[in-house]
Design goal:
226 residues, Diaminopimelate Epimerase, Chain A, domain 1, 2 domains, 14-stranded mixed sheet, 39% strand
Length: 226
């Protein structure tokens, strides 16, 4: 049976939470898009990464419902797991660095899929939000916890076409919010995940977070595996 590495990406300061990520280290075992999409749907993670070239960092990213050219937490997780300085998703070359506690990637806002970024008056309002109806559109709800310090409270609600009601930590949405606000952010998302961001040279954005190894497991398994 093939092996799957499961990571938690964008963990909180206590090492808890973070968004679950499946990494198939040998992408050759699922050689075409249909088989990869089927496995991603079976596993049920918000994203699954297939590694096609571990030395050059060539990766392929799938949600349970579609293939993505770019996604934040899969690339941070892959860079950490494979100890890479460059990751190559379909969107383009993504530089990575590791500072001991955090793994960082540098990306461009135009690579991120569209998100509706909606500001609320307080973190309490964000905490109280119900999930939007299925198919209502991708919502990234946020509020300042401490504007002077750049601290943000956020929650992310996908369209739910692929069964994901709330995304625990979304680097792509954090990327777009950072580009919109034009400043470094310290984002607490979901149940307690932490995403750090900072504008970089040439309109790039750096995204960083903690990664923890959860487990290795055989697959395929049912969607309840996530």
């Amino acid at each position: 049976m093939n092996e799957l590495d499961v990571l938690r990406v964008f963990c909180g300061p206590d090492g808890r939470h973070g968004n679950a990520l499946g990494v198939v280290r040998d992408g050759r075992t699922y050689p075409d898009e249909a088989s990869r999409q089927a496995l991603a749907a079976e596993l049920g993670f918000s994203e699954t990464v297939f590694v096609d070239d571990p030395e050059r960092g060539v990766v392929d990213i799938h949600t349970p419902g579609l293939r993505l050219p770019f996604a934040g937490h899969p690339l941070v997780g892959a860079a950490w797991l494979l100890d890479l300085e460059v990751v190559n998703p379909p969107a383009g070359e993504v530089w990575a660095r590791h500072d001991g506690e955090f793994t960082w990637i540098t990306a461009r806002p135009e690579w991120a899929p569209p998100r509706r970024l909606q500001r609320y008056a307080s973190a309490a309002e964000v905490d109280a939000l119900p999930a939007p109806p299925p198919g209502d559109g991708w919502l990234y709800a946020w509020a300042w916890e401490d504007e002077a310090a750049g601290r943000v409270r956020a929650r992310a609600f996908p369209r739910r076409d692929d069964g994901i009601v709330e995304d625990e930590a979304t680097g792509a949405a954090a990327l777009l919010l950072t580009a919109e606000l034009g400043r470094a952010l310290n984002i607490t998302q979901g149940r307690g995940s932490q995403i750090l961001t900072a504008p970089g040279p040439g309109a790039t954005i750096e995204i960083g977070g903690r990664v923890r190894f959860a487990r290795s497991a055989g697959f395929p398994q049912s969607a309840g595996f996530a």
